[in-house]
Amino acid sequence: MSAISWRAVPVWGLILALSTGSASAQAQRVVTLDDALELSGVAIETDTPATNPRLVGPRAESEAAAALVDQARLRPNPEVSFEVENLAGSGAFSGLQATEYTLSVGQRLELGGKRSARVGAAEAQAELAALRADLTTVELGQLVRERYLRAAAAAARVELAQDVVARNEELARIAGVLVEVGREPPLRALRADAALAEARAHLVEAEAESLSARIALAALWAGSEAPFVPADFPDILPPASLMAGAADSLTYRVARAESTAAAAEIERQRSLRIPDPTVSAGVRRFGESGDNAFLVGVSIPLPFRDRNQGNVAAAEARLRAANAREAVALADYEQTVATARARYLGAEARVETLSRTSLPQAEEALRLVSIGYRNGRFPLIEVLAAAEARDTIREALIAAREQRGLAAAELIGLAAQ
Fold first, then answer.
1. If I label 163, which of 1, 113, 195, 260 is the partner at 20 to 30 A Cα–Cα?
2. Phi, psi for residue 46 in degrees, rounded to 5
3. pLDDT for 172
4. What are phi and psi of 181, to 5 degrees?
């Protein structure tokens, strides 16, 4: 028995280290779900500048797309040209006597609805970028809820492991007393010590998983320290109705905006098939006579080879792809909602059964067996079996509460508009 205790010393030291770290984190900061949503930037107003890199990027993309709308509204700039002819030649064109100076101004005229098509395409891209930024915020909120639930479940498993260690310590103490007085064989004490060592090792594992879950949560807002998450599961309730709003869901609106942007891009590419003439007007001065003359000109590109047909075909293909994604998003929405709702209702039923029926019965059975064991009426194996049954139910209850929260978080994300 002394050998088993000696081997458990390093494990117990690690347990103390992890427990000390958890206590330190608890003293520093206890984070609720609302705190986590605020730290990640999900709960703040849209007009408030974001500091979370996960939100800064999409919102900057939206601002860039809005700036491109203003750029698309601008008309082409005029062009000024200045030419000097018959300069420093030979014979009659030597020197500056026969020099001609030409100053002209040209303006490219956009035909075929290029400007309106360009503005329409830019506005469609801006709407798409804004919706994608909103979708990023919604997805981040869902991810925060999911990781917070996992951290809370990990904390609950730590508490469960601590209770198991405390119970096995008491059982090992009782087994040692019963062996000393000759009411139990030495094998019972060895069995109790082995169960205690296993419980301590499981506590170390639970502490490590809890730390990993808290680090993953803090990573959502680039936090430098893992926050302390209590073992209490937050109340996350799904929206009352979802099926009627399939076409208004944010995910589908993004897919529909992609189709709209693709259609607008086709119009822009088609407008580029029509060449734009450049009209110019100027004045020419003849150095030899000192006379002036006005000039008027028009230049038109000849679209013999390049009629932008490749870009038009590519834009049409992108529209077909966007329409397909839109149809898939609409078809998948109701199925995803139904699946998440079924998972939520199933987990809620498990939580109700385990918390109100199974766990109280297991607790009572363990209590009675423990009393009988202390009085020498039941062997140690009966106590361990009853304790294992109770712990299994507690673990199942933690998993059910975690799954219920995850399903509710998914339903909240699906209901976002």
1. 1
2. -65, -35
3. 83
4. -85, 0
How far is residue 336's CA from residue 394's CA, in Å, rounded to a whole number? 29
Can you give the three-state secondary structure of 191-260, one letter per residue? HHHHHHHHHHHHHHHHHHHHHHHHHHHHHHHCCCCCCECCCCCCCCCCCCCCHHHHHHCHHHHHHHHHHH
Mean pLDDT of 34-60: 84
pLDDT digits (tens, 9 = 90+) for 194-231: 888 999 999 999 999 999 999 999 999 887 788 899 98
Q: Is the pLDDT of residue 372 over 60?
A: yes
Q: How far is CA 230 from CA 36, 144, 190, 296, in A?
A: 13, 15, 35, 81
Residue with tokens 């400007």: 115
- Cβ(144)–Cβ(42) below 8 Å: yes
Distance CA 130, CA 136 (A): 10
Q: CA 234, 238, 239 angle in degrees (round to 5)?
A: 135
Residue that has been written with the tokens 């797309």 in this structure: 65
* CA pair distance 52, 144, nearest whole angstrom: 13
In terms of pLDDT, which residue wins out, 404 or 1? 404
Measured from the Cβ of residue 316, the count of other Cβ atoms closer than 10 Å reads: 16
Question: 384, 172 in Cβ contact below 8 A?
Answer: no
132 and 58 in contact (C-beta within 8 Å)?
yes
The residues with which 270 forms a beta bridge, in sequence order, are none
Residue (of 85, 117, 83, 116) closest to 98 by Cα position: 85
Q: How far apart are CA 299 and CA 391, in angstroms?
A: 86
